[in-house]
């Protein structure tokens, strides 16, 4: 009787592969769903604005230090530290958060003398990395102080994070790439040769990744400190944040992969680790710029790099083993070469796209040459090109000398080069990405110290200025939109401004930064006296124009004078008001209207009728004419009033700038007690 034995190994292997890739696909879809659902700000936190301003100066001791970030942050235990001119620590109050976690502030508990001070800050970003940075500011006159550029923000525990991510990426490469390398080598040899070939390092890679993922989770719990994470080991806290969920996914995926390797299910282990690449995509820098697509781009880059590196490591190991046994490894190297071409193109293409995504609008060259991230990106690109050159030389050598001993020395050097690429990639994922210097602020920065305000109109666009210590805030509005910061407004604005201070011989351009719809802010070092601000404003819906406004500094508050003026006007029995109203200052000032009225009727119709205004600033007094100028501001209503008073504290001229129009008034009184006529 003939015994027929049917082998089930191949079908079983195929079923295992099918189950593995189904699990991988389901996991990948789940993690990518998390990527698309996650908010855009998943990369390192960026310091947008500070009070006192970064590398700026304030005339007097500030009451607090306040930082504004581009995303919600978690203050560390010592989030804000202040250092004095001689390195002495300055006492600050408890750290508080505001604006949905995007601001961090602390009160300054000491009076600061004239000199330079350093703010050292530490926060945890949404990607889980703890960011640190420092900047300087000056108290008192800026002269004599040497304020340079601010330091780039650093990642706390950068060395530990980089080493752990090297381990994580290495584990991914040894497992994913090892499986692909094993398939390549099996196709190029007989069954007997395959039995004697070394196995891929699947279990070793999974365990290395597991240990590294656990270390990254501990660092996350410790706010950037491995020792701190061990001291407060609370694994369930990982589930409270997106970075924690990413760390948990990576930890579970590597644990599952290690279990699959122990069960000799290598394909299932590699398929499970697809979730690690997807999770890294969620926390990587491109995800912050292009949500969803950024995660997919990083996933593609990481998978291609892992297979490229891991497959070469296994093919070289098999080639060396076969060479020791007197067998040829040429076919194995050729098989890898065919796959490596496509992997190289994927790595290079996705890497270049990631670099372009992260490049600041100011230019790719500046990003690459002026930031730490950009310089390391250049190093990575250079190493990749060297590895590619070695690979090309090795392939040509293989084609020209098919009987030469393989793997060649170039292939072994290529392995070392790819190891360098992996290490630099781990460093880049830990470094803070380049940030646009004039990134738009999420909301207007608050005024600091005394405030001076002025308003005007440029064509159809209303303009309001708020001047405070170290800054100038400009708000624009049009007739269809009030207030200007209305989030549903679709109007876009452009603004160019310059300032002419009392001691300047020529105007200087202002470096404006957007802070919302119709909102711009610029750093300013105010000089004593009256500064002329010239503004050219345009909008997408209305014609703009150019106007000049005056800001008095220091801001001398004149609340009592306004109350006195209102009392005087209420006693005026009769006056004649000549009024012109216009919405477009590019044309005529409007038809002049003559309106007889009493002083009481005038103040009842004006916003200052109660004798109170949020801002009342004395612009100046002319001793020759006896006239005094006041600037009133009602920022909540977008209304600004310029009053000219006579020597009796009566209003003789008034300009009222509202969001939709400008009103110009001249007041003429009957002959006063001195027999003087007020002529129009």
TrEMBL record:
Lineage: superkingdom: Bacteria
Keywords per UniProt: Cell membrane, Copper, Membrane, Metal-binding, Signal, Transmembrane, Transmembrane helix
Residues covered by the CopC domain: 44-139
Membrane topology listed for this record: Multi-pass membrane protein
Name the UniProt record assigns to this protein: Copper transport protein
Domain Copper resistance protein D: 331-428
Subcellular location: Cell membrane
Any GO MF annotation of the entry: copper ion binding
GO cellular component: periplasmic space; plasma membrane
Single Gene Ontology BP annotation: response to copper ion
Main subcellular location: membrane
Residue ranges of the TM segments: 158-180, 201-222, 242-262, 267-286, 292-318, 339-361, 373-394, 415-435
SUPFAM superfamilies, sorted: E set domains
């Amino acid at each position: 009787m003939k015994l027929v034995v049917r082998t089930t190994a191949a079908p079983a292997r195929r079923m295992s592969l099918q189950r593995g890739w189904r699990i991988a696909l389901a996991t990948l879809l789940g993690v990518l769903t998390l990527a698309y659902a996650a908010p855009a700000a998943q990369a390192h936190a960026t310091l947008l604005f500070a009070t006192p301003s970064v590398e700026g100066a304030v005339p007097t001791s500030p009451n607090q230090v306040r930082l504004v970030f581009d995303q919600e942050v978690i203050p560390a235990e010592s989030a804000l530290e202040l250092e004095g001119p001689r390195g002495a620590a300055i006492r600050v109050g408890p750290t508080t958060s505001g604006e949905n976690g995007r601001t961090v502030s602390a009160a300054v508990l000491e009076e600061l003398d004239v000199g330079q001070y350093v703010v050292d800050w530490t926060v945890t970003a949404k990607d889980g990395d703890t960011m640190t940075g420092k900047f300087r500011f000056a108290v008192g006159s800026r002269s004599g102080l040497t304020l340079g550029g601010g330091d780039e923000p650093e990642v706390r525990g950068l060395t530990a994070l980089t080493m752990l991510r090297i381990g994580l990426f290495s584990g991914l490469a040894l497992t994913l790439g090892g499986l692909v390398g094993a398939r390549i080598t099996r196709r190029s040899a007989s069954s007997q040769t395959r039995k004697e070939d070394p196995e891929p390092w699947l279990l070793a890679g999974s365990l290395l990744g597991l240990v590294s993922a656990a270390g990254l989770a501990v660092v996350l719990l410790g706010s950037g400190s491995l020792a701190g994470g061990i001291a407060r080991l609370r694994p369930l806290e990982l589930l409270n944040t997106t970075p924690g969920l990413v760390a948990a996914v990576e930890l579970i995926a590597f644990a599952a992969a290690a279990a699959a390797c122990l069960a000799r299910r290598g394909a299932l282990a590699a398929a499970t680790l697809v979730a690690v690449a997807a999770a890294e995509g969620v926390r990587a820098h491109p995800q912050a710029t292009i949500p969803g697509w950024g995660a997919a781009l990083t996933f593609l880059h990481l998978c291609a790099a892992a297979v490229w590196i891991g497959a070469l490591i296994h093919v070289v190991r098999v080639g060396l083993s076969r060479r020791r046994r007197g067998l040829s490894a040429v076919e194995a190297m050729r098989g890898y070469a065919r796959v490596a071409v496509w992997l190289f193109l994927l790595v290079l293409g996705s890497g270049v796209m990631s670099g372009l995504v992260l490049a600041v609008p100011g230019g790719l060259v500046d990003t690459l040459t002026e930031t730490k991230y950009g310089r390391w990106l250049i190093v990575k690109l250079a190493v990749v090109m060297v590895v590619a050159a070695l690979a090309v030389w090795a392939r040509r050598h293989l084609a020209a000398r098919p009987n030469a001993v393989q793997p060649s020395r170039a292939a072994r050097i290529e392995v070392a080069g790819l190891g360098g690429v992996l290490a630099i990639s781990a460093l880049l994922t830990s470094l803070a990405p380049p940030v646009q210097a004039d990134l738009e602020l999420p909301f207007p920065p608050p005024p600091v110290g005394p405030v001076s305000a002025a308003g005007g109109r440029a064509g159809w666009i209303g303009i309001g200025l708020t001047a405070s210590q170290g800054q100038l805030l400009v708000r624009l509005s049009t007739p269809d939109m009030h207030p200007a910061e209305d989030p549903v407004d679709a109007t876009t604005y452009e603004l160019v401004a310059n300032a002419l201070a009392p001691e300047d011989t020529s105007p200087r351009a202002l470096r404006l930064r957007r802070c919302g719809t119709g909102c711009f802010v610029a750093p300013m070092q105010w000089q004593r006296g009256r500064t002329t601000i010239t503004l050219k404003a345009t909008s997408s819906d209305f014609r703009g124009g150019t106007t000049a406004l005056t800001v008095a500094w220091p801001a001398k508050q004149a609340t009592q004078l306004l109350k006195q003026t209102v009392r005087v006007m209420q006693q005026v029995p009769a006056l004649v008001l000549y009024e012109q109203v216009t919405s477009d200052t590019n044309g005529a000032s409007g038809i002049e209207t003559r309106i007889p009225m009493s002083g009481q009727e005038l103040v009842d119709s004006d916003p200052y009728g109660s004798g109170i205004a949020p801002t009342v600033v004395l612009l100046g007094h002319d001793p020759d004419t006896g006239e005094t100028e006041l600037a009133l501001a009602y920022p909540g209503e977008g209304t600004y009033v310029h009053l000219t008073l006579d020597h009796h504290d009566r209003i003789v001229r008034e300009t009222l700038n509202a969001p939709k129009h400008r009103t110009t008034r001249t007041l003429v009184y009957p002959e006063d007690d001195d027999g003087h006529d007020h002529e129009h």
